[in-house]
Every structure is written in C-alpha cells, then in structure tokens.
C-alpha cells in the first residue's frame, strides 16, 4: 500500500492553450479513497492520467509510496486502472481479460487460476469466465474491468468515471458494491467522476476541481456543509446551494424587505453586501407568518417522493426549498421561511470565497482551500 | 513535456518510410520526366513537344479523350446514383445484386476490354444475337464506324468503372442520417423533393470525391480502348504507350504524359472551385 | 396506396434485375467464350448456351509463350507489393490513427494527391531511372511502382482500422504491464488483423490489375496483363477471350471475400 503525492502538476494541451491542470498539488493517504469531482473540462481526468503515466506533465512531480515516478512509463508505476469505456479486450475471453496483468507479470499458471477465480468470485463473474466480452451485458463488462484492475493487487487503484456508462439503476447498485470491494481491499484509490452524488457517497475525501485547480478538498460531508466558495456550493448537492444577496446593516442582515439578526462573523461587514448560502433542506417552511420568518411565495411544486421540492420567490431572488411531503403547497401561495443561523454560509460577493468564520482581524485563520486533515 | 516531445519523433519515425518511398517513386520520376520531355542532347528543347503536336494522332487523341470524359462521366454518375437509390429501397436479394454490381471494381481495364470484345467483335455475341433474331450483323469496332467504336468503349468503361462511383455513393449515403430524410417526409416532401433538397446536398462531399477521382481515371483510359479497337480510337494515354513501346521514343511519350497530368490537375482544381462546399464557407 | 406501393416495389425489383443482367451477362459471356472449343468459337452465330464446354481454349492460352512466366511474375510482383506496402504503410497508418503530430493533415493530403498522379506520368520516367539503376525489366521494378500506387490506400485503410481499436485499450494494456510493442502485438494487432488482411488483398488486386506501368517497366519479365496486352495485336480472338477470363476470375473471388470491407476501402477512405 502506498500514498500518492502530486506536486505542482501543470499540463497544457497543444490544442487548448488553457492549462488543463494548473499547479495542482494533493496527497492521497495510504489506503484512502479520494474522489476527484468537477464539471467536464475541469482537469480531473488529466490529473488522473498524469498519475497513471498516460500523460506527461509539463512540470511538477508525481510520487507513489515515496518513489518519484514522474519519468516512469505507466507499466512501471505499479498501479492499476478502470477506464471509462472499460477498455476490455474484445478478442480475449473474460478469463484472459481479468488475468491480463498477471500474464504480463508472468505469474505461474496455478497462481493465475487462483487469483482470477478469486477476483471473478468477488465480482460474480465465475459463470462468465469463458465468454467473450461481446456476449456480456454492459454491467458485466464493467465488472470485468474492475476484476482486471483488482486482480493484480496493485498499490494504487485509479478509476476514471467507471460508472458513467451504466444506466441509472445499475449505477446505484454497483456504487455500493464498488465501495464494499474497495474498502475490503484497502487499496489507495483515486477516483474521477463528474457526478457529485457519486463523489459524496464513495470518497473518504473529495477534491472538487474547477478550471484545472482544486477548489476544495476535504471529507465529503464537511465540503458539502461548508463549501469554500460559491462554485463548490453550487456544484455539490442536488438541488445546489441557494445563494442570495443580503446587506449587513446595524447588526442585521437585510434580505429584500425582511431582515434577520446578523452573526458576529459579519461584524466587520457593516454597510456592505454579502452573499448568503443556504441548503434547501436547511430551510423550514410554514404557511403561517411567524416572528423572524421571511415572507415568500411558491412558484413551482415538485414532489420528489421523499420530499417536496419548492421553487420559491423571496423578494427578487429564487430559492429551492425542501419541504416535508405533508406540507400543502400550491403555486402562487404565500409561505414563510426560516433558516437557523448556524446553517447560513457567507460569501464575499466579489471573490465568491467563503468569509472566514471568525472576524478577519484574526489573520491566522486558515485559507478555505486548504483541507482539514483526513 | 519530456515524453510529450519524444512523441513527435515516434510519429515521424512511423511515417518516414512511407514518405521516403513516396518521394522516391513520385517526386523523383516527376522531375526526371520533365527533364526527359524538355531537354535533348543539346540542352533545353521544345523539339519533343513540337513533335508530339505535329503527330497526326495527337489531336484526335485529345478530342477522343475529352469526348470520352464528357460523355461517360454524366451517364456514369446518373447510373451510379440510380443504383445506390435502388439499393436504398431495400430490394429483395439486395446482397446478390450489390455483389454483381461491384465485381468490376476488381476487374482491370484490360480484362474489361477483353470481356466486351467478346460482345462487340464482328463474330461476337452481340452480332450472334442479332443473327439469331434475324437482324443483320454490324461491324461495331471497325475503324470506319467511329461512332459505334466510341460507344463500345463508353459502354465497356461504364460497365467497368461505375462500381467505383457506386461504392463511394453508397458509403456516402450511409453517412446521411435517416432522420433528415424522415423529417423531410414528415413535413410532406415528395420523393423527388427529398432527393433534391435532402439527400443530394448531403452527398455532395462523396460526389465531389468521386467526380475528381473518376475524371482523372477517365483521362487515363487506355487498355479498354486498346483491347477493343487497337489504335483505331486513339486516346492520350494510349499514345504514350504507342510512343514508348512501339515507336521507342520515351521523350515524346513523357511529353504526352505531362499533358495528361496537367489536364488532370486542371480538372481537379476546377471541380474543387466549382463544387466548393458553401455550407462550410458560410 | 397499397397498389401504388406494390407497383413501386415491382419497378424497383425489375430495375435491379435489369442492372444485374447488364453487369453480369458480360462475365457469363467471357466465361462461355473462354470455355468453348476453338472450333465452336469459329462458328457463327455463336451459341449462347454452353452446348459444348471445353478446356481447349484455356489450355492453349495457358501453354502459350510467356503466359506461365507472366502468371508467376504477376504472383511475385503481387506478393512483393503486399509485403512492401504493408511494411511501409502500416506504421504510417498507425501514426495517422494514433498521434496528433504536426503535419498530419499535410501528410494525408500528400497521400491523396499522389492518387491523382496518372500512372503513365510515373512509369515512363521511372523506366529511365530503373535503366540507370539496373532495375529495369525486373519484377522488383514493377513491385516498386505498384507499392507506390498501393501505399496511399494502404495507409488510409490501416489508419481507419486502427482508429477502430480504441486507444484506451492500448493504454489499459500498458497500465497492466505491457510495453508499447507488447500492447500493439497483444491488443491492437489481433483486432486489426482482418482489416490488414483486407488492405493486403487490396494491394494484391491493384498489382494484379495494373497494366500500363508493368508494360513500360519490363521487356521480358512481363506480368500476366502486360503479357496479354503486348501480344494482343498478334493473337487470335480465342487467346484474347481466354486471357480475359484468366484476368477476371480472381476479381470474382476477391470481391466475394472482401465484401465487408468494400465500402471502407473504396468508399470512405478515399475522402
């Protein structure tokens, strides 16, 4: 088992001009499951491929288990990978596909059989070992790709959107299975996805990437709960975090015509605008007016089964609110909203970055980008 | 960057042999050829060009070649389009029909000439059929009957070389998504309207390639005419063969070859300008 | 509507049959002529059905001067062309398919341009060059010319084939311990093999059919078509018919074997 360290990786594609990864540094601890998540074109796959040795960085270093592998070809890095398209070999049977890495390592026959059988059993492929990939379903091909990756017992496992070609139901099933298998193996894993739900559910930590940089890195729940900037808040979670502009005035936070008490955090922002971020599930709703609650109006009602998703107009702003299914809502109906103060997050309207939790006079406050240790 | 830079030489290494072979066998002969045509024992000369122009066979060869291109190409494209559209209707035994229609792809022009010789020869199958039905025979390939001789060459070439156009058009049609065609028919377009406004415009790139290729190849028509008519119907490339093999004069032969090259290039450039894809430039 | 539809189907069917007759009957006739006895070929009108099939005409043709030699030369040149074209062309096709190198478009354009060069422009000067280098009138000379003619298509066909093998598969092989050559041999080559075989057959067919260059570049080492062409004027009809059939037969086999690849080969790759 080994940790993966990435230092100052820069990669520019000849065609793009823009940097695909821009001075990225991060560390995957030994045995950790780290998810790289971000919209397409954010550089997550490029980063993964540089770790794999399939792309060469313009500058920066990659090391695995303390060994600098930046100049080593992929085959000498001692890692294994699951590809987005699976990349299983159509001209080989499942057995040869799973055992490909073992064949390359010249593993003796009996050990080959034993290890392939074990991997096949783990992925429920035992009955399919003598078939060709063309005779398998999409989900089964995916299992072959995973079995091929785990059979080699590599120190590091890389996965490039392995679930994105499966249909929604299968994806959900296999996600849990994947989590079980990887945690059993305890392999250091670097996993790329554009699906925020996948990132949240799989990762020990997630790194949210944007424009070639890591916007935030941390355990999924803390990244979800305290997005370091508006982009992360908007990207993680469904529906995305709500953002509204408010003005801090005399210890109050004015949103449209209504106002709330402002937390101490905003003491130095008197007289200026801030952006308030709040998650849909943290907003409470009531049909009756109550003191301290904000009046609003329902625009759209979308039942999701487990809850009601309301699109609500508050002054000039639109909010997504999650209400219990018992709540009676019809379009155009007035309602009242309340969000506990500790669920509110505050962002600088110019930089979009989260405001420090304590007053800015405490200059030693950690930058929001650096991660809490895992 | 380290291996990124190393990657370019890998590609260059892979294409280098083909570049060397192509240059050695295309560019070099071209240079040698120009030398052959325009320089004699005493330096640069136009003597070979003049000799070519003065030859009584030269201008008829030019005329015949031009006429062949002008007559053959339109018929051939109409024929190939018809075949491709018929196949698109999914007739019964489409596979078998297609096989027979494309067999000539692999038949050489010489063989095609010999095949049609068996038909058009004085004592060939066409006259035999005419005899069977009681009509008199006809000397199709006689040098006295220039028109039928020419038509025989057109038919043989049509038979041999239409399959190339067909294959290009069929491949092009496969690239035309059925959606467009279906959408057009949902909006009430008739078959001919769909053909004119939907299918043909999308076939334009394929047709353009086919047109350039076929025109250049038609300018090189030679063995078909040779097999059917000998030198009775002179064609440009046939004259090259004549000058080189029979008259043993490579210089004049090269001069004629260069004329063929120049006309080919002109035709290609002309088509490209004429058929410039306006959807791209817009 | 349904009657119109039925009429339409019948018309399509009839048109297909008519075209098939036009394309197929000449092949039947040349086979009929070549497989008739010399005596029945001298009859007029010629019988339209195989009333007395005979191998006399064919065997006379095969035993004429230069035919066996021409046949062997054609075979040698064809196989040599295949070997050379693949050896030189497959790496080029692989490079076009896999690497985004500068000048790739220029390279492809160059290949296409060479297709537009009339063979005759190459052959006569090449004869000069080969005379100077001592290659004139050898099978090697013809082989080289045919390689040059087959090369552009070989590169473009093989490129199309390699594009069909996803690059990720090669990457996967390398992740799991294969060196680049191993990845090519174990993963790409087995999948590309049928396509490469098709490219090989294409090169062979091109060489088998090429007449003019082979005639210009040789005196004694004629290939079969060159032999037939140069003796055309002085030979009896029977000889010409037999020669025609001998040249057509491989085409029938070739197209039957290659049907799957025809569209790729002549259709799309020519763009």
What does this structure look like?
- The complex is a heterotrimer of chains A (374), B (282) and C (271).
- Chain A is of the alpha+beta class and 374 residues long.
- Chain A is built from nine helices and 20 strands.
- Chain A has two domains: 4-234, P-loop containing nucleotide triphosphate hydrolases (Rossmann fold); 239-370, Nucleic acid-binding proteins (OB fold (Dihydrolipoamide Acetyltransferase, E2P), Beta Barrel), CATH 2.40.50.140.
- In chain A, the strands form four sheets. Chain A has a six-stranded mixed sheet, sandwiched between helices.
- In chain A, helix 6 (168-185) links the parallel strand 7 and strand 8.
- The two termini of chain B are 38 Å apart.
- By secondary structure, chain C is an all-alpha fold.
- Chain C folds into two domains: 1-54; 62-265, MetI-like fold (Orthogonal Bundle), CATH 1.10.3720.
- Chain C has twelve helices and no strands.
- The mean pLDDT of chain C is 87.
- The chains are: A alpha+beta (374), B mainly alpha (282), C mainly alpha (271).
- At the B-C interface, helix 1, helix 3, helix 4, helix 5 and helix 6 of B face helix 1, helix 4, helix 5, helix 6 and helix 7 of C.
Number of strands of chain A: 20
Question: CATH homologous superfamily of the largest domain in chain B?
Answer: MetI-like
Average of per-residue pLDDT values of chain A: 89
Q: Which strand order do you get reading across the main beta sheet of chain B? A: 1-2
The geometry of chain B reads as globular
Spell the H/E element sequence of chain B: HEEHHHHHHHHHHHH
Proportion in β-strands of chain A? 25-35%
**Content-based structural category of chain B:** mainly alpha
Radius of gyration of chain B, in angstroms, nearest whole number:
23 Å
Could you tell me the radius of gyration of chain A in angstroms?
Answer: 24 Å
The stretches of 5 or more residues of chain A where confidence is low (pLDDT under 50) are 359-374
Tell me how many strands of chain B there are.
2
Query: Can you summarize the main beta sheet of chain B?
Result: 2 strands, antiparallel
Query: Strands of the largest sheet of chain A, in order across it?
Result: 6-7-8-3-9-10
Assembly classification: heterotrimer
Element order, helices and strands of chain A? EEEHEEEHHHHEHEHEEHHEEEEEEEEEE
Given this structure, which CATH class of the largest domain in chain A is correct?
Answer: Alpha Beta
Domain ABC transmembrane type-1 (chain C): 71-258
Protein name (chain C): Sugar ABC transporter permease
Keywords (chain C): Cell membrane, Membrane, Transmembrane, Transmembrane helix, Transport
InterPro entries (chain C): BP-dep_ABC_trans_perm (IPR050901), MetI-like (IPR000515), MetI-like_sf (IPR035906)
